[in-house]
Amino acid sequence: MARAAVDGWILGLGSRQHGVVARSQLLEAGITAEAIRHRLGSRRLFHLHDGVYAVGRAEVSRIGSLLAAVLRCGPEALLSHGSAAALWEIAPAREGPIEVSVPGRLERVGPGIKAHRRGRFLTRVLAVHHGVPVTDVPQTLLDLARTHPDHRVEAAVNAADRLGLADAETLRRSLRSLGGRPGVTRLRRVLDRHTFVLTDSELERRFLPVARSAGLPSPLTGAEVNGFRVDFFWPDLGLVVETDGLSYHRTPAAQARDRLRDQAHTAAGLTPLRFTHHQVRHQASYVRARLVQTVQHLSAHLRP
Fold this sequence. Notes:
Low-confidence stretches: none
Largest sheet: 4 strands, mixed
Number of strands: 14
Distance between the termini: 97 Å
Strand order of the largest sheet: 9-12-13-14
């Protein structure tokens, strides 16, 4: 291949790969080791990592630096953990080494890279985003659940839902096939906090004792109020309690209906309260405290 043709091929590959090429890619294309050394010496290639070069200029973009780290770690490597979350834009980019998962052991990856040794399952969670091989969104969230506090995992799930990358029910289904893989229990707990749904009978069984302990009499259940079926209704107090599930992925239409319900109740002089199914099941003390405050407020206004 003529020198001009070689330079053109390298520039073309670099433009498709955020200005980054791997030595293995050049060798596979028939470019000799001597030709690579020549272009390093003439500053047409710049060293980034062992076997990874920038094309045409020493600086590369943020995505270029992520791809360079993956290329350094071999053809089966994937961007992962916090670095993958930043690439998917479900978590903010943070200072520190770029995290890459590899199927085997790497003796040395060089500065600025943190390699996670993983099993061969990496081929099953492969995705490509912005041209970078990366763990797919469910696996990325699972990795975050192993290393990050719950509130950051929750924020990442919310972001994935908002960006249309994953929704809570899809994630829950994917977790069923992952068995006891690290992070599954914690991610499921974070999801359940906002997506757990009780049946009507179980909801009543769990909620009614909490309501009684807050000083409330037995409510009407499943009554129609202002044209809407409500979960719990106390006519004498003018109190309506609704419970929500699937709060991560409530559609705009469902959210609009909720607002219409609450507006209709408020316009009729009622007080609407909303709790999640998870709160009813796992945060009874919080639900009780809110009910007590509400009952005290409503009772004060009902006194002559």
